[in-house]
Amino acid sequence: MKHSKLWLLWLTIIVISGAYLTYLLIDGEDKTMFMPGAMTGGHHQIGVACEACHTDSFTDKEDMQKACESCHGEQRKKPFDSHPRAKFTDPRNADRLENIDALHCITCHVEHKPEITQKTGLTQPVDFCVHCHQDIAEERPSHAGMGFETCASAGCHNFHNNRALYTDFLVKHMHEADMLDKQKMPAREFASVLEDIATYPHDRYPVGKLEVKDMDAPEGMQVADDIVHDWVTTAHAGSGVNCTACHMVSGEDDKKVWDDHPDHRACQTCHDIEVNQFMQGKHGMRLKSGLSPMTPAQARLPMKADSHDTELTCNTCHQTHAYKLETAAVEACLGCHDDKHSIAYKNSSHYELWQKESKGELPEGSGVSCATCHMPRTSIDVSDWLRRVVVQHNQNATLVPNEKMIRPVCLNCHGLGFSIDALADEDLVQRNFKGKPSKHINSIDMAEQDNKRHLEETGGETF
Amino acid sequence: MNKTKLAVSMGTAIAIASATTTLNAAGDMVPVKAMADALHLVMDSDRTIYTRKIVNRLVKKDKVIKASEHFEDDKALVLPAQMFRFGAELVQKRSEKLPDVNFSYSLQSLWPVNRQNAPKTKAEKDGLKFVAENKGKNYYTEETLGGKKYFTAVYADTGVAPVCVSCHNKHKDSPKRDFKLGDVMGGVVIRIPIDG
């Protein structure tokens, strides 16, 4: 009798637990209980949304690859990736694929394996370059005797993005001063290319200056004076973007209805590229996965306690109606970020320049804000036919490895050698670049050495 | 520029027409050798036109623009060899989804500027050596790679323009610096799967 009660209890516990777990698995928002291991810093925010990466299957590599590329695809194309897929699908490289399956991201970036995950998200042993490049010293005598562990040293090679590190680029920039003569970020050019943006709603909101009397908010709606003031002094009113452009959103049956608090989808109507980039980065990736917005409380970096519950959408950094770009570029960041590098910013020479630009003592583009480096203005192909300067809203694009920051950011003001050394100096990074680099990476020296040998062999001729 | 476009279009049209004739003459099933020869004819014609009518004309004759290996950074024309490779990469990508027309091709050399373009398989090594030593002849064989069987054809790639020769002779990574006009500088390797 006693035994049968225990059996019954055991069975009840099993059934209830089973039902609870089944519910969690099918309908629960937080599925972290089923995770085989903690997630990397790159994905931890969307860890509760298994289906963001595990789309149709848990075992099909191609399904997983599609999920990876849905966020990282753009960065995996030439010229941003020196090892794109097309390099390995050629049958002549079949033997290489037997050594390392370079067609799939998860070969080198396995999730849920914190014990073997390196800072760059790599989960392969670091000698992977050797599989294909073991005879590099024959081609580059300067590399003779170098160990495999030195390939990916800061300032040398990355598997993917080598745009600032390839030999001819190093040679081209080899004797640059620490500070270049011209020190300026590219100017924004959204307004000047509106004509060429096919998806811009030119028909409904033709470009032109709007006044308070032109406001098209629904009749009878009381609009606060500060909102009116903010709107009429922004580029939105200055270029024909009226109230309904953002506030009329798709409701049921796709009918347009007024929304007091439109979300990022309203911004997407005109700023599609920026919003998509935002949703690929750490601030917006939860929105892309259909989750609630990211909050600083969920971050792994130190954040200010009073910001913990702030939900990150477009308007969190770009204050609604005011859209002050200066605030979005510094104060919005420092409102939450509380790590050493962020705290040190206001004591840096970059901030001094930013203050001078803000006061009008220096021309626009001379100051260095948080966004200058982490959301830089870069000239990108926004379609097959158009290239324009876009504020990169995916801060991962220049984050890790930090050499990705050299071309779009550092080289606007600094020489290449200085930039490589500065980014390799972790203490200097923590001090937010106050002072000079104490490290020296010899990649430029090696390139110079190879170049000198070439010039001697060819009698001084360059091609 | 319109003349250039016209020339390129005509070149392509002639090449494709030649290829089509070969295919039709073979009946329903295209002999794999004829298929490879036709593909090579199109590739070679396109590249010749690009080299002559675009690169050489604008760089050497009109002197209005440079051609550069780092064409994006230098805001220059892509080199003819790069044009060829980019086409090969695009075919590689597109043909993954078209198993019926799955083929691949590459430009290789016994003296490559980029060592990754040196011959790797026995067929590539034998083929490149054969076309270099037997001017005017192609090399055909079969090989198995990654468990799949391929018909592999190798065609000589000759330095037709002075700029081809001078660039390879001066390039810092070139292992051979005494090419002469008309020399075989490398080869085009075309692979067509033949085991279904």
Can you put this structure into words, describing what you see?
The complex is a heterodimer of chains A (about 475) and B (about 200). Chain A has about 475 residues and is mainly alpha-helical. Chain A is built from 21 helices and 4 strands. Chain A has a domain at about 190-430. Helix content of chain A is about 35%, strand content about 5%. In chain A, the strands form 2 sheets. Chain A has a two-stranded antiparallel ribbon. Chain A has a two-stranded antiparallel ribbon with strand order 3-4. The N and C termini of chain A lie far apart (about 95 Å). The model of chain A has no long low-confidence stretch (mean pLDDT about 90). In chain B, a hairpin with a 2-residue loop joins β2 (about 140-145) and β3. Mean pLDDT of chain B is about 85; it is low at about 15-25. The longest helix of chain B is centred in the N-terminal third of the chain and has 30 residues, at about 30-60. Chain B has one domain. Chain B has helices at about 1-25, 30-60, 70-75, 80-95, 120-135, 160-170; strands at about 105-110, 140-145, 150-160, 185-195. Chain B contains 6 helices and 4 strands, in the order ααααβαββαβ. A 4-stranded antiparallel beta sheet of chain B has the order 1-4-3-2, with helices on both faces. Chain B is about 50% helix and about 15% strand.
Task: Give the gist of this structure.
By secondary structure, chain A is mainly α.
List the helices and strands and how they pair.
The complex is a heterodimer of chains A (463) and B (196).
Chain A: H1 2-27, H2 61-72, H3 86-89, H4 94-99, H5 130-133, H6 136-139, H7 167-172, H8 225-232, H9 235-238, H10 243-247, E1 248-250, E2 256-258, H11 264-280, H12 285-288, H13 314-317, H14 325-329, H15 331-334, H16 340-344, H17 349-358, H18 370-374, E3 377-381, E4 387-391, H19 416-424, H20 426-430, H21 443-457
Antiparallel strand pairs in A: 1-2, 3-4
Chain B: H1 2-25, H2 32-61, H3 71-74, H4 80-95, E1 104-108, H5 122-133, E2 139-145, E3 148-158, H6 162-170, E4 184-193
Antiparallel strand pairs in B: 1-4, 2-3, 3-4
